[in-house]
Design a protein that fits this description.
4-stranded antiparallel sheet; globular; alpha+beta; 6 helices
Length: 158
């Protein structure tokens, strides 16, 4: 837990948040019990990093990275083995969906616009169930925590 708040190295702090199971058990607020402090923090870090680099919100994309790609410090918001997502102004040739013209509160809307989803090629029922749930979850931090929890629960069955 100490590595989450006391490290002086920003890259190490980002990695600590990505890997933390402790931060995942806390909600953003008492009033929003199904949200995730872990993913709220990672999303804010990605937004701040992009803003500092000169990108506006309208320039940002949710990008699906391949599981073997390196984590992009302060841009990767989820890295769970088979699923890696980042928020960036430069999607490259990776599957990506724009976040929209202004701050959006619906993860489901952005997820639905992705041209390709993790697990699409597998045709596995578990991936279809996960995809269906993510098309309904509006909260970004809740959706990202759901992916992590779902993949942990499924284990090697995917």
């Amino acid at each position: 837990m100490k590595a989450l708040v006391s490290t002086a190295d920003p890259g190490a702090a980002h990695e600590a948040w990505l890997e933390s199971w402790v931060a995942a058990v806390f909600s953003e607020s008492l009033f929003y019990p199904y949200t995730s402090l872990k993913y709220h923090t990672l999303l804010v870090a990605a937004l701040v990093s992009n803003y500092r680099a000169g990108a506006g919100f309208e320039d940002l994309y949710l990008v699906v990275d391949s599981p073997d790609e390196a984590v992009t410090p302060h841009r990767t918001v989820l890295d769970t083995g088979p699923v890696s997502l980042r928020v960036t102004a430069d999607p490259g040739d990776r599957p990506a969906a724009t976040l929209g013209a202004g701050p959006t509160r619906s993860f489901a809307d952005v997820w639905s616009r992705l041209p390709e989803h993790p697990g699409d090629a597998d045709g596995c029922r578990a991936w279809r169930v996960l995809d269906a749930q993510l098309r309904r979850i509006r909260s970004w931090s809740t959706a990202l925590q759901f992916i992590e929890d779902f993949l942990e629960w499924r284990g090697d069955a995917l």
